[in-house]
Structures are given as C-alpha cells and as structure tokens.
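Students often ask why we bother encoding 3D structure as a string. The short answer is that it lets us treat folding as translation between two languages. Here is a chain of 697 residues written in the first language.
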Amino acid sequence: MKNEPKKGRQFLDWQRLFFFVTALMFTAFPTVLFSNFLWRLGIEQGIVPLTILFAILNWNISWGATHSLIGFFYRRRRAKEINETPVDPDNPGSVAIVLPVYNEDPKRVFAGLRTMYESLKQTGRGEVFDFFILSDSTKPERWLEEEQSWASLCRDLDAFGRIHYRRRTVNTDKKAGNLLEFCESWGSRYRYMVTLDADSVMTGDTLVALYDRMEADPRIGLLQTAPKIVYSESFWGRLQQFSNHFYGPVFIAGLNFWQGGQGNYWGHNAIIRLGPFIDHCALPDLPGREPFGGKILSHDFVEAALMQRAGYEVRLAEDLEGTYEECPQDMIEHAKRDRRWCQGNMQHFWLLFSRGLTFASRLHLGNGIMGYASSLLWAIFLILSGILIYNRVRSQLSLLPTSGVGDIFQIPLAEHGALIGGVTFSLLFLPKVLALLDAFLTKGRTRLFGGGIQCTVSVLLEIITSAAVAPVMMLYHGQFVVFTALGKGVGWSTQNRLAGDGLRLYDAFKSHRTHALVGLIATLLARQVSDTYLYWTLPVSGAMMVSPFVSWIVSKPSIGRALGRMKILSTPVEIDTSAELEAVPVLQERFTQSNWIFDDEKPIPGVMNAVVDPYLNAIRVSLAGAAATQQNTEANNKILTERLLKQGNGALRSNEEKQVLSDVEMLTQLHAEVWTMDPEDLHSSWKPLFDRYRWSS
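And here it is in the second language, the structure alphabet:
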C-alpha cells in the first residue's frame, strides 16, 4: 500500500539545506565581527569563551529570524491543496476526545466541552466522536463539582454514553500517567485520540477536518494544530495574545518549511493515531532522580520523537483555524508555568543522544532546552564581558593598531561596535518587522487587528514592553535552570488563567525584590567599569530595578480593556469572533448558576455538600458504588460520622473526607441523618447548607 508508514525522509533535502545555511550565515557574520572587535580592543584573555557564547546566543536569535524570513516568503506562495480523500463509509474511524483536568475550574471546563459537543453536532459528523473527562483532581469540592457538572451536562444533552467521566484516586505519573491509563483501558476502542487541555476550545469543523486528514493519510501518526490564545483581559495577557496571533503565522510557516512530516507535539489540540501511539510511544524512565531524571514531566516532545522513530509522520496543520487556548494573565503566573516547562525541557537532555531518533526530533528537543538555557548563557555572557572590560579599563593601556575584519572594511572602532549591535538587533526585530509587512501585504489582515495604524502601534508597544520584561525573564529562566540542575524540583499545580483585578503592588514587590536588587547591584558595578559600559548595560539593569512596577502595571485588566477600546493589541478573534468563542462565557455563566451549591465566594467543604444536597449525594453514591473501598470498619465509620455531624466544618482531615466520600454506606447514612436529626444536635456550620433550601418563608 503506497501510504503505509515508513522511515522518515532524508534530513538534508534542498529546503532544509537552504534553511540551515541561511541560519548559519546569520550567525557567522556577527560572530566574526564580534570576535574581531574584541581583538581590536586588546581583549585577549577570555576572547574564546566569550566568542563561543556569542555564537551560541546569536544562533538562537538567527534561528527565529530565519523562521520568520522564510515563513514570510513561504506565505506568499500558492496554497497547497490538502489531501482529503473521502472517508471509507464501510470502515469509519472513531475518535476519543480526551480532556485531562487537575483541580481546574469545572465551570470553564464543562462550558468548553459543551461548546465543542454542540459544534460537532452541527457538522452532522458528531457520531464519530466521544468525549472523556479524565480527572486527576484531588480537592473534593472540585471533583464533586466535576461529577455534578458531568451528570447535568449528559442529562441536558441526552449524552450518557457519549460523554464519559473518570477520576483517578491515585495520580500516578501526573498527566502522562492519566493519559496512559486511558489508553490502556479505552484505547483499543478508538482509532484516534484528540488531546485537549482544560482551557482548550476547538470548533466542530476543525475536529472533523483533523479526522478526515488522518483518515486520508495513514502515514500521519500525529497532527498538531496551532492554537490561538483567547479570552485575555490584562495588559500582559493581551500582549501574549497579540503576539500569538500576529507573529505566529509567519513563524509557523517557516517552521513548517523545514520540518515537514518531522514536526513536534505541543501536548494538546492535536489528534493522534492511537494504535502506533500505544505500541511505540511509552515513555521511558530517565537516568537519575527527579527533577533532572526519573519520570518525564514534559511528555509531548518525547512522544512526537517516538512516533517518528516508529516511522510515522508528525505534522503541523498550520492552515486550520478554530483551535484555541488561554494563557496566564501576569508575569508571575507566566513564570510559574515556565518553571514547570523548564524542568520538563531540561530533562530532555538525556534523550538528545537516544538511538533511533530523527535529527529533526533531536533539534526540537535541543531547541526546547535552549529556550531556557539561553537565558543563563546570556547572564554569563554579560557578567564575563563586564569582567573583561573592567580589566581592560583598569589596565590603562592604550589601544594598539591591529588588523582584522574591521580594518579590511576600514571601519572605525566605534562604528565597528555599533555595527555588531545593529546586526544583532536587526536579527532580533526582523520577525516583528516581517510580521507587520506581512499584515500590510495580505489583503484584509490589518483590518482583523484593528487597522493599519493600530497594527503598527501594537507592534511598537509590544517591542517596548518585551524589552522591559526580557531581563527579568532572563533572571527567572536562569534561576529555573540552576534550580533544576541542583535537584530542586517543582510540584504539580493548577495553572491560573484569570486576571482578577491584577497584582497588588505589594505582591509585585515581594515577587520581584530580588530582581530589583540584582539590577541595582549591576548598575553600581557597571558604573565602576566605565560610564560607557553603564550606558550600554542600563537598559538591562534598569529594567530589573523597575520590574516590580512593570509587573504590577502589565497585570492590570483595566489597562488591557482600555487598550482594547482603542483597538490596540486587538486580535481577529475579537474583531470577527466565532460562535464557539461567544458560547463559552455564556455557558460558563449558566454553569455558575446551576452549580450554585459550589459558591466560590462562600465555599463549603465538599464532603458536607455531598452529605446534604440530595442530587449531589445521589451522583456521588452512584459513582462511588463500583469503586467503593469497603475498607472501613464499622467502628471507624461511626467515629467519622459522629465527628462530622457534631464538629462540622474542619472536623475531618483531607484523607478522612475522601474516605467518607468513597463509602456508599456512610454517605447514604449521613444523608439520612442530617435531614432527620434535630438541627440543635448538629454543629452550627451545617446551618448555612440548610438555609440554602429555604425557598419559601
């Protein structure tokens, strides 16, 4: 069969050769200029390590610039037709849409799920798809709300048997283990699996298009979409959202130019061929202990590499719209997410030398590592260059006439330094300039971002803000790399994507006080070197000193909304929003109203809710029935029951609450007792729960 999976193509075809030669030229030219500049300054000690560091860091910049340059021209080509062979009606595939959750807000999760379910139904192809909520939630109030939301959703949509809910009581191997358990239990029933995050939204048309493309080409093992960021409110969130929408398409076109069928997996909003995934993509344990070894934290890159090693393609469907996600709304939450991603990417170091991986897979893994390690290298580069310049100034030696590349072109020393800076900054800002040019050359694209003037202002604002926060992110990432190397791991936490009222100034100072102190010390040290060096480094050290104020300002949703009213940092999803994106907040509000017993402002322990509320108690008893532990002794049950009734809120420890919630007999007995006991015999903390049912006087 002509479309059978096979080993990947030879790495160096003409497209890739062109791409990498371009990136190498972008790196080599400023590196030669820089090395020669040091030599002309008479800096001999340290010239080799400093030049190597400069070359590595410049390669990182050139890598991004080359993507955008080639992507810019690639987007001007005629669109390639996608192979969409009609689905075989006699052998239709089946798709499991899986949604792993971990203490996420159930209202947002189920609003997104309902939107996707109804959107699929409108396509008339929904019968192929089933949904699975794979819960790893550990907070009783969260998973009780998940259970109620699931039961209500299935009842409203008549979708029992189409929308499934499963919760693990032991969170082995976190998200990767959650998906593994699904594959082992349910994977054989489905041909494909669509992986989502708790904040994912995909339209029915996009889900059907993914399915059709997988059916049409059995060589594809994994098809990744390019999710667009949505629902951002704060200044910071809108910056991320604008960058994703405005710069992303040009960069991704360049990425697809060279990676072809050897792409990457980003962990969600993608479809996977389940057979080869189960057979070939089991995650190995890494040498050593966590965080640098042990269980793999960031599984997606590794699974893409293993899929390719098995002979299947991993592609990026850059042309598909209707795929969305959300992002953190301030710098601190952004850094918390990066902390987890950093540890996961640093672990990939062990896999760089694994046998059988394609060179493209090694590149993806290496780029993931450099995404964080480069920050540490930048910090070392700045410190080392400061020391060398300080020694040079302190020597009080005059500059000696030397020959080199600068002399060949007869460039004075000052202009030589300016040329290095000019080339480096040109490469740094080239992606932004090309994205702006792309917007003006693509018919109707500027309108989707608020207009030509608003586009230009948005790009300038994004550049200025990025320059202000880049030094702080450098410190963050450098710290994360060092912590990981020293064995200081990160826990599993739920990502906060809500803006709220933004950060308090006190919290911003508390989080960035070390950054501000580092900036102050760096400024004083630079002043000791020379005034010229101080001026060169002040944009970096100064940004660190004012980081608390910057972090506080960019967290504000009020500024984000003000910019939105001026159509600054606007995105296409705000100008021409889809029915699905409009539906999610509406449905979320409905879930808030229907889940009124889970009041976020006046939270009540989940176990007390499950004891009192008849509907919730019935759902919990039903779901606990099959998995009831039956390990509690009668005497122990009596003790727990007495304590809960007599002492109320806070009477039970977390594990005891879970014990009660897992025991059908105890839940049923407690429910009967609280509704039949004399209220005077119950602890006063039960009273608010009963007050909620006093609907008539």
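Translate back mentally: The chain has a mean pLDDT of 88. Keep this in mind for the problem set.
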